[in-house]
Design brief:
Number of helices: 9
CATH class of the largest domain: Mainly Beta
Number of domains: 3
Strand content: 25-35%
Radius of gyration: 25 Å
Distance between the termini: 22 Å
Structural class: alpha+beta
Number of strands: 28
Shape: globular
Strand order of the largest sheet: 8-11-15-14-13-12
Largest sheet: 6 strands, antiparallel
CATH architecture of the largest domain: 5 Propeller
């Protein structure tokens, strides 16, 4: 197979920084604040001007950012009434720090069609690329780039040097229907106590009602589920003035405290013909992980939602781009080793029995196999790009072809890797790895963005017909 690698590479840029709150122990923080308050007005003005000169060109709305950190310092360490604005800003600056989101690596890309295709001819396609940005402490966030495919070649629009975090919008309440239909489905012992909740449930009123239950174990279980859902389900929005490459989705909730990993975006067609983008990602809190969901129509406003059910067990859930036989469908790896097909009437609840789709059979995948993003619809069936792990933890990319009407069945596959780490791609944060979170079809070509050893990104392409014909040579093909 003649797969072609592009000369284009996307490397991490340590200059891309955000501002974080610089947390201190309370006793030490009090000393810092006292020292600032003891400064003269001239000293305050001089120090603040130096802060502005050093950092104003690295961040949009610098004063607004450091003032918000002053307000956060008040919330953490106690209110500071009667302080002049300049001292507020300087205190905020002392409790601020820069974080380089790409200092360690930029990898695991996912590619989708851009919602805006204006100004292009029929041979061109604008796309959005999401990437996993990793910085100090192996903390991962989601970053974006955009580009255009012209004459089957990928070009990227240069990212601006600035980065911006979104505004987080917490939910004031959970609907009782959500608790009954999503949270506690399958937990029969919780149904009775949940029936006592009001139609609109907050953490506060839930605690007041549930703690009256004499069964402390049941009370703690349901209250913990409600509190976790209230924390992990939220909305975010970026300023309209931001460029796409400036938007950084950074961990907000406790469930993703140590990272938002490996987003797999898909352009999803609703029953009425409208489109929405879904992105599944791994939320990691430092000890445990779970898959969560991003929803957006414009890549500026996002809903962050939790997935539930006994089948939300492993990383790498990839959503089909439309419903299959009236139900949502995904491919995932439930046991860390094999690929499964699952469907559900509810996008947020995955409880129905999964179907084993594929288990390792070739030597390059004996350790495990998984998906490289959402299945792609072709004339011959659903093309699923996969990753596999073989000797020396060597990751390669391959492919399966799923039945067009029943994608729980495989009709063809590759018995050799489609893409493997070339000699100049083997070294990096995690050696000997090629990996992708979502490819795209355009002008009869499959375009695969891929990570090289968890360090940077490259692009490859292959003619779709050539790939499909090669797969049909495998004995699994039954059409």
């Amino acid at each position: 197979m003649a797969i072609e690698r592009s000369e284009l590479k996307l490397f991490p840029d340590p200059k891309r920084v955000i501002v974080q709150f610089f947390l201190q122990k309370k006793k030490r923080a009090k000393k810092i604040i006292a020292r600032i308050l003891a400064m003269t007005d001239n000293e305050i003005s001089k120090e603040l001007e130096e802060v502005k000169s050093l950092f104003r060109d690295r961040h949009t709305n610098l004063e607004q950012i450091i003032f918000s950190n002053f307000k956060y310092a008040e919330a953490v360490y106690g209110e500071l009434p009667g302080i002049p604005p300049e001292k507020q800003l300087l205190i905020g600056a002392y409790f601020s720090k820069e974080y380089s989101i790409e200092a360690a690596s930029l990898f695991n890309p996912s590619m989708v069609i851009h919602p805006d295709q204006t100004g292009l001819n029929k041979t061109e396609l604008r796309f959005i690329l999401s990437v996993r940005a990793t910085g100090e402490g192996h903390l991962s966030s989601i970053s974006f780039r955009e580009g255009i495919i012209k004459n089957d070649e990928v070009t990227l629009i240069p990212a601006t040097p600035l980065c911006e975090l979104p505004k987080r919008i917490k939910h004031k309440y959970l609907e009782k229907n959500y608790i009954n239909e999503v949270l506690i489905t399958g937990w029969e012992n919780l149904v009775g106590i949940a029936s006592e909740l009001p139609d609109l449930v907050t953490v506060e009123n839930a605690k007041g009602i549930l703690r009256k239950n004499p069964d402390r174990k049941v009370y703690k279980k349901l209250f913990g589920m409600i509190r976790d859902a209230a924390e992990a389900n939220y909305d975010i929005e970026f300023a309209k003035s931001t460029n796409l490459s400036e938007r950084i989705i950074f961990p907000f909730s406790k469930s993703e405290l140590m990272g938002m990993e490996d987003a797999r975006f898909v352009k999803f067609e609703n029953d009425d013909g409208s489109f929405l983008y879904y992105g599944t990602y791994t939320a990691f809190n430092g000890k445990t992980f779970r898959v969560q969901l991003l929803e957006t129509s414009n890549f500026r406003d996002f809903k962050v939602r939790t997935l539930h059910g006994r089948n939300n067990l492993d990383k790498g859930i990839a959503i089909f781009p439309r419903k299959i036989n009236g139900r949502y469908a995904v491919v995932s790896r439930l046991d860390g080793e094999n690929l499964y097909f699952m469907n559900s009437e509810n996008l947020y609840k995955w409880d129905d029995a999964p179907t084993l789709l594929y288990e390792p059979r070739n030597s390059f995948e004996f350790i495990q196999t998984g998906n490289c993003g959402s299945p792609i619809e072709t004339k011959d069936g659903w093309l699923l790009i996969t990753h596999s792990v073989g000797p020396f933890r060597r990751y390669v990319i391959s492919a399966l072809l799923l039945d067009p009407d029943d994608p729980s069945k495989i009709v063809a596959s590759l018995d050799t890797p489609l893409l493997f780490p070339r000699e100049d791609e083997r070294e990096g944060y995690v050696p000997n790895v090629v990996y992708s979170c979502g490819s795209i079809l355009h002008n009869d070509y499959l375009i695969i963005p891929y990570a090289m050893s968890d360090s940077c990104c490259g692009f490859a392409k292959i003619k779709l017909d050539e790939l499909l014909n090669r797969m049909k040579q495998n004995s699994l093909y039954s059409k």
